[in-house]
Amino acid sequence: MNTGFDNQKYLKMQSEHIKERIAQFGNKLYLEFGGKLFDDYHASRVLPGFQPDSKLNMLLQLKDQAEIVIVISADAIEKNKLRGDLGITYDLDVLRLIDAFQSIGLYVGSVVITQYAGQSAAEHFRERLSNLGIQSYLHYVIEGYPSNIDHIVSAYGYGKNDYIETSKPLVIVTAPGPGSGKMATCLSQLYHEHKRGIKAGYAKFETFPIWNLPLRHPVNVAYEAATADLNDVNMIDPFHLEAYGETTVNYNRDIEIFPVLNAMFEQISGYSPYKSPTDMGVNMAGNCITDDEVCRKASQQEIIRRYYQALYDQAKDRLGAKETVYKLELLMKQASIRIEDRKVVPAAMMRQENTNHPAVAIELPDGLILTGKTSDLLGASAAALLNALKTLGGIEHNRHLVSPASIEPIQTLKTDYLGSRNPRLHTDEILIALSASAADDANARLALSQLPKLKGCEVHSTVILSSVDENTFRKLGMHLTCEPVYETNKIFHR
Angle at which helices 467-475 and 380-393 pack, to 10 degrees? Predict the structure, then answer.
């Protein structure tokens, strides 16, 4: 697949700028990390060449000086908010992140529950953290936030929040996803540090929106699509324009909160080190794009995927999904893209129309599109997956990699002994059967060896898939979208 981003250049430039910012403030720096630390798959999808763990690799160079504070919103806990890329709730992702950080030697100091207003789910989660030996703190809903600066920067605003005990000069503030309250947590700490006579600074590590790309550049529009459920909006930074006469891009929440940050710095040291939200960010991503057209096309595909995810959420009757669909439809119009621009969509729909059965289409790395249909033996996903592996391995299409005779006992197991109504093999089941065949069949072994080549491939299904098939595609690193319809007319779906 074509790349459009120089990851090594990015690591070098970003690391240098972080070190400069640490030196600027000296003793204590609260560094807000936007996006995902371990697995920023959004960035890797819209900036082909960006490695999902790039931010983490930079942190490891500073691990002796750094500690991690993980932030999660009480509302996200209460609403069981999901990470769409991993399919797990935000609270579970906090635990996953703690394990992941600690496994590589990064110290996790605590978890902060923000926007707390007595939510019972948040209380239960805090109790769970306590039972696991993890320190947690509460930050409260502040009346008049973010406009009433005098109230916010007072004993009745940030002053009500718990003071987070930290021990390292560099405090990395991160979260499972956007809208968690990372910036507010940093600002609250600056207030409390000042009250204790401790000098501290703040900087923001952010990837999107990219400040030195145009406002309506597809990369920036894709970020707006990714945060559509939060009602985030990319904007021209008015503070930067006024201070420097330079047009840069930021987003509404950072622009709204900037006067608060400015007022806090002025109270702490008599001046603000930043003249704009753009100033406070550390973001060299725009300087590391090597092929703008590749990144444009990748971002357009991401917008369409986000649209299909919103349609999926709407079909699942998830809260706020309808409004998210409307916003994404608008973003698609602004970006001049249609669902048909996602090549696997018309291919899958045409196969369904020709066979009158659900179908799945897969786009291989070279652009070739293969399809699979529902049959007596295989689901459409399993059929398409087998076809893709055959093509990648140069195996004749009519050659059986798994014999019908070996599939039938699996079907009997499913229906007669495990209580399944669907005898057709799912993707995980066909891969297990293929693995068994590989013991005696060279072609099956060859097909299995092609699995890594599926990473990054596009997939579209004409029906909503089972969780089993969804998870298999996700584990293979494939980008799945589905039409927002169920295969059956049942009113209960899992």
Answer: 20
